[in-house]
Specification:
Order of helices and strands: HHHHHHHH
Structural class: mainly alpha
Oligomer: single chain
Distance between the termini: 35 Å
Number of helices: 8
Radius of gyration: 17 Å
Largest sheet: none
Number of strands: 0
Low-confidence stretches: 1-15
Shape: globular
Helix content: over 70%
Length: about 230
């Protein structure tokens, strides 16, 4: 995806190297094991559809990025525009995919986990590539450093990145279960999705721990409501 940020979505922070990438990748592995125990599976087909859904939603954001870049050269405003567009872009694709392709609760769970897992893969790739780019010392590396500094995440502890991946996974699973329970919930999930992304984008500039904890709190609430709705 073409974006001014160093992460594929507002919830995928770049980490300091391969160790952080490995920690990121453990998140979908652990959640898959838990899901297999709780709902059965794995349902690789449903997970693959979820992953394709995430990729499709990224393409829907590209026009927003292009327009925002044209209207303003401010990276912060472009990031805000992308955060606001994230909810409608992802939730439109999610509700269509779940409504047309998912007929049972276990498959909805794996669809949501597949959606979250591919985002983790992109975040893990960033965790490896970004530090290499920063060490180059050229104009591109300076631009990346400026973006990370503007996001407030340069030098942040890797544990907060892992926490964000856990929170994002919970959110994607929760949003998927909500639209599975009732497609009209997609209106609410789009709003909450954008609000959560915007909140963490703004809050981490002031305090990474505070931003990640607020994001985690939103994820817990959404997942709890989703489990109740889908039960």
């Amino acid at each position: 995806m073409s974006d001014t940020r160093i992460r594929p979505t507002p919830t995928a922070r770049a980490g300091p190297g391969p160790a952080t990438a490995l920690a990121f990748l453990l998140v979908p592995v652990v959640t898959a094991v838990v899901a297999a125990v709780v709902v059965g599976g794995p349902a690789w087909g449903a997970a693959g559809l979820g992953a394709l859904g995430w990729l499709a939603s990224m393409w829907l954001r590209i026009p927003v990025v292009l327009v925002a870049r044209k209207l303003t050269g401010d990276k912060g405003r472009v990031a805000t525009a992308v955060s606001l567009a994230s909810g409608p872009a992802e939730e439109i694709v999610r509700v269509v995919g779940v409504t047309l392709l998912v007929a049972a609760l276990p498959r909805a769970v794996w669809f949501g986990l597949g959606w979250a897992a591919v985002e983790v893969v992109f975040a893990a790739a960033n965790a490896v590539v970004v530090p290499i780019l920063l060490r180059r010392g050229d104009e591109k590396s300076r631009e990346i450093k400026e973006i990370l500094e503007s996001q407030g995440v340069l030098g942040a502890a890797p544990a907060y990145g892992v926490l964000e991946r856990v929170s994002a996974t919970a959110l994607h699973l929760g949003f998927t279960l909500l639209v599975f329970a009732n497609p009209w919930y997609a209106v609410a999930t789009a709003v909450v999705h954008s609000a959560a992304n915007l909140a963490i984008t703004v809050l981490v500039r002031r305090s990474v721990p505070r931003g990640e904890l607020v994001f985690a709190g939103i994820a817990v609430i959404v997942l709890a409501l989703a489990v109740q709705a889908a039960a």
